[in-house]
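Q: Here's a chain of 76 amino acids. Please give me its 3D structure as tokens.
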Amino acid sequence: MSGSAETSATSDTSFEQAREELAQVVTALESGGLSLEESLALWHKGEQAAETCMKWLDAARVRLEQAAPAESNDAD
């Protein structure tokens, strides 16, 4: 069981860290009072955090599919 695929897919940021960062970005953007430049920088940061979350979720989906018995794929 190699974690290299997960590590390379997530840039050393855990799913929980990325999710928390995304939540902070959303809170900051929703609170308002930011300049356009600050809002754009936060948006970009949020996009990166969301991408990291998706990479973690995609890697988890692949692991689940690999661990599932072959018969479960035939049932679909």
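Q: Can you summarize the key feature?
A: Residues 1-10 have pLDDT under 50 and may be disordered.
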